[in-house]
Design brief:
heterodimer, A: about 800 residues, FAD/NAD(P)-binding domain, five-stranded parallel sheet, 26 helices, B: about 120 residues, mainly beta, Rieske Iron-sulfur Protein, three-stranded antiparallel sheet
């Protein structure tokens, strides 16, 4: 019998493995012609990363050499790209001519996705796909050279780590909020980023590339936020897409990939496809395990044996030495799904298991992945884990063991057992401290430092107290921030600063959060603490804000909003009033009201009208009044010495100056000021958060008043002689509040806790500290003293409904 | 009119919904809130809290839950069920992401009757 003609387009890992199986199962059955666009045969593409980093050479990763192809009688057409498939005549064409086939296998793999930004074609921009790309990166990654990798997925990070090992200064730019978001959740992504940064790789998340800059070759990368990173080489690793051009031109059925059935057969019965170019059951494939399964099935099909391709679960590991991460299965949250989370901040370990019913369906691990394959087995086999659930997260060593009594376990610990990893405190030392009188958690902390750093061992320390003291020990009653954590607000604030935590995932990981993404109570608080403590490094997270602050308007009971433009010190002009009146007419505002803070409120504005109404008000020179924010609201004034016959100072002028100093700042709760021109106090300054009463000799600054649910008169902070001093004291005092109060506490509540004397010591007596506080306030204001509507009014589409189906015809 | 007939409508790119946020789709049966969680899972719920009618689309999204902006009722976005001590339920609609586009099953919504 004459051998049939089998033509294969693409000598990659899938077709290489397929040929091995085929020659074993049906030797001599086919005359094989193998086309490859790359001028070489099959090599282990997933080992390009060790080649890049210098840990392996190309020779080490060749899987089929010339001898192998010769021994199998394969006609190799390497470096000869196929240009056309003629399905009618069953001929494949390259530039050199046609080759007829009986059966054809398309294995064209995938092409890197190149983001369409200016400069993408400059010399020095490469993808990370083949040996040529790898060599380009090796050539560029000389010590001291600057490399930018766009894309913080699996491939991008391997490219970054490889070039960094060769001595280049590497920056990774990633569009999403955390690295490898397809494989990792935010907590694990944060730990990975921390590891990479510790090695000297710069990571920029939420970074959108705007352009690649350079004249004759790449010089830098410009991001949408204006950041510029110098670059001698730019590697684009943002993703791949199936290479389907030949199949498309040949009119085979193609969706995202070439559509194949369970036998890897395309819409043409003589044409098959395999590897990254195929789409099977709406699914694409990028990892090697399912490709090898496809190879087995296609070899059997070509040998006329029955075989069915069923994609299996795959697990991911990153091939970067020192980054120990593992992810498998489905780790999205969902109805009926439950999480088991384990965090050990001291050792940088995070493990999360996702259960659905009695089965494990996903696992994400960082730092300690030893049990990964065991979990993967449970996922693949669909094992019922009910019995071992309590200890499941500790791995196979504990699975199914008896339920542990934590108290008995602590009682059984030897004296030298370490309780506090941060400070190296063993159980014996804690017991000794208790025996000499440290009978509360705070006293143990004070005398031994146990649980005084990251705080995750607090529970253990309390158990040691309970075991040692018996019934006489009373658990501390400190209120945790919310159900997501055992830490108090105060602890969280202290630890954010002490440990240099600069993102919400960082706080949640390092402080051992018990939920995956926090809750509506802790997210806004953390967002505030982070932006107050790291004004330049941390970016305000709009999605962690309550609706009013996210939309920069006050939501009303019917879902409409109120609009309050700022009137500095309560002073306005005919032109501003006209603009407000015009806006009220134009947007059919149902109610116009004068507020208690000396400005005008437009009530009942529809959300989609907010950008337009603000664009109009901005055009008239007005900015947001922040009537909705945990921030500076108003500075109420009386007319003062300019007009009033009793006025002692220019209270209106000082009010305007204070408002221009403080506006736009975020604070733990709202802040209202007032300046009265004489002790008659027409601006009601003595029930504000900060009130100034002018007297002949200067300015009496008093603080911590209230006129809401509680009514309280202010207390005198100090009296100063000049406006400049008054402004510096007030900026310093507000900054002291910003840095120290817990979220949502008004100034009067905070002062009641810390004491007015302490505040005086910080901002009145200690001039140097006053100046430093005022400087830190000014630094933060360099970011936040701006009108949010200047930006939001530019993007009206974001405020409109995503889609209006009321206009679509019903069926 | 066939009740079992499915009408999948492309309501826009996933990127138009901020992570841990929501957008609104207006329909004849009222507004629908379409959410995107931190892990890119999408959900569609009636945009009306059963408590006092608050727009859930403006709530803070955490995990697969959303907290109503008016009085902090928390709903499981997958089932529409109120969590904790509050008792209530909002309607949910099938929604999925395909090729970066969000598809909403709007058969019930397009009939113009209150769901």
């Amino acid at each position: 019998m004459m051998a049939e003609k089998l033509v294969i387009i693409g000598a990659g890992m899938a077709s290489g493995r397929m040929l091995e199986h085929l020659f074993e199962q049906a030797p001599g059955r086919y005359d094989v012609t193998l086309f490859n666009a790359e001028p070489r045969g099959n090599y282990n593409r997933i080992m390009l990363s060790p080649v890049l980093s210098g840990e392996k050479t190309y020779a080490d990763i060749v899987t089929h050499d010339a001898d192998w192809y010769a021994a199998q009688g394969v006609d190799c057409r390497f470096g000869e790209p196929v240009v056309k498939i003629d399905r009618e005549r069953k001929v494949v064409y390259s530039a050199q001519g046609g080759v007829p086939y009986d059966r054809l296998v398309i294995a064209t793999g995938s092409a890197p996705f190149i983001i369409p930004v200016p400069g993408k074609d400059l010399p020095g921009v490469c993808a990370y796909r083949d040996l040529e790309d790898t060599h380009a990166m090796i050539a560029a990654a000389k010590p001291g050279a600057k490399a930018v990798v766009i894309g913080g997925g699996l491939l991008g990070l391997e490219a970054a780590a490889g070039m960094q090992l060769r001595g280049a200064e590497v920056t990774v730019i990633h569009l999403m909020g955390h690295l490898m978001e397809r494989q990792l959740d935010p907590a694990a992504g944060y730990l990975l980023q921390k590891t990479l940064e510790a090695r000297g790789i710069t990571v920029h998340c939420k970074g959108a590339t705007k352009a690649i800059l350079g004249k004759d070759r790449v010089e830098a990368v410009l991001l949408e936020d204006g950041t510029v990173y110098g670059a001698d080489l730019v590697c684009m690793a943002v993703g791949i897409r199936p290479e389907t051009r030949l199949a498309n031109d040949a009119h085979l059925e193609v969706n995202r990939g070439i559509v194949v059935n369970d036998q890897l057969q395309t819409s043409d019965p003589s044409v098959f496809a395999i590897g990254e170019c195929v789409e099977h059951d709406k699914q694409l494939f990028g990892l090697v395990a399912p490709l090898y399964d496809q190879a087995k099935v296609l070899a059997a099909t070509l040998a006329d044996q029955p075989a069915v391709f069923r994609p299996v679960q795959t697990a991911t590991k990153l091939k970067v030495t020192g980054c120990d991460l593992f992810s498998a299965g489905d780790f999205a949250e969902g109805p009926g799904r439950e999480d088991i989370v384990f965090r050990d901040p001291g050792r940088g370990i995070y493990k999360r298991l996702i259960l659905e019913g009695e089965r494990l369906i996903g696992a994400v691990m960082y730092g300690d992945t030893a049990d990964g394959s065991w979990f993967f087995g449970l996922i693949k086999d669909g094992t019922d884990v009910t019995e071992m659930r309590d200890t499941l997260i500790f791995g196979p060593g504990f699975a199914g063991g008896a339920k542990a009594d934590p108290m008995a376990a602590v009682a059984a610990l030897p004296p030298e057992a370490e309780i506090c990893g941060c400070n190296g405190v063993c159980k014996g030392k804690i017991v000794s401290a208790i025996e000499v009188g440290a009978n509360t958690l705070d006293l143990v902390r004070a005398s031994t430092k146990a649980s005084a750093s990251c705080g995750t061992c607090t529970g253990l320390v309390e158990q040691v107290l309970a075991v040692t003291l018996g019934d006489s020990f009373v658990m501390s009653a400190a209120q945790p921030m919310c159900k997501c954590t055992d830490h108090t607000h105060e602890d969280v604030r202290r630890l954010i600063k002490a440990q240099g935590l600069k993102s919400i995932p960082a706080v949640m990981q390092e402080l051992g959060w018990k939920t995956v993404g926090g809750c509506a109570s802790c997210r806004p608080a953390l967002n505030y603490y982070l932006l107050a403590d790291w004004p330049l490094e941390y970016r305000d997270d709009r999605q962690a804000r309550f609706v009013n602050e996210r939309n920069h308007a006050n939501i009303q009971k019917d879902g409409t909003y109120s609009v309050v433009p700022r009137m500095w010190g309560g002073v306005t002009t005919p032109a501003e009033l006209r603009a407000i009146a015009d806006a009220a007419d134009k947007y059919a505002v149902p109610m116009v009201k004068v507020t208690g803070g000396q400005r005008i409120d437009l009530l009942g504005v529809k959300k989609e009208d907010l950008p337009a109404i603000w664009a109009d008000l901005n055009d008239a020179g007005m900015v947001s009044g922040h009537a909705y924010s945990k921030g500076l609201r108003t500075v109420k004034t009386c007319v003062g010495s300019e007009f009033c016959r009793f006025g002692t100072q220019d209270s209106t002028g000082l009010g305007i100056k204070l408002e221009k100093l403080l506006w736009g700042s975020w604070t733990p709760a709202k802040v209202k000021l007032a300046v009265s021109g004489c002790p008659r106090n027409c601006a009601e300054a003595t029930c504000k958060d900060v009130g100034v009463v002018c007297v002949d000799s200067g300015y009496q600054i008093s603080v911590a008043g209230a006129a809401g649910m509680d009514v309280k008169e202010t207390e005198l902070l100090c009296t100063v002689a000049t406006e400049e001093e008054a402004m510096e004291v007030i900026a310093a005092f507000v900054q002291l509040y910003r840095e120290n109060s817990r979220y949502l506490h008004r100034i009067y509540k905070w002062v009641a806790k810390v004491g007015l004397d302490w505040c005086k010591a910080q901002v009145v007596a200690d001039l140097e500290n006053r100046r430093a506080l005022a400087d830190r306030f000014e630094l933060s204001q360099s970011v936040y003293r701006r009108d949010p509507w200047a930006e939001h009014a530019q993007r009206p589409a974001d405020w409109a409904p995503m889609m209006d189906l009321t206009r679509e015809a019903a069926e | 009119m066939n009740m079992s007939h499915e009408t999948w409508i492309d309501i826009g790119p996933l990127a138009d919904i901020p992570r841990e946020g929501g957008r609104v789709v207006k329909t004849r049966a009222g507004c629908v809130a379409v959410f995107r969680a931190a892990d890119d899972a999408v959900f569609a719920l009636d945009d009306r809290c059963p408590h006092k009618g608050g727009p859930l689309s403006e709530g803070i999204v955490h995990g697969h839950s959303v907290t109503c902006p008016l009085h902090a009722w928390v709903f499981d976005m997958g089932t529409g069920t109120a969590q904790g001590a509050d008792v209530g339920q909002v309607g949910t609609y099938p929604v999925r992401v395909e090729g970066g586009r969000v598809l909403l099953e709007a058969g019930r919504l397009m009939q113009g009757r209150a769901a």
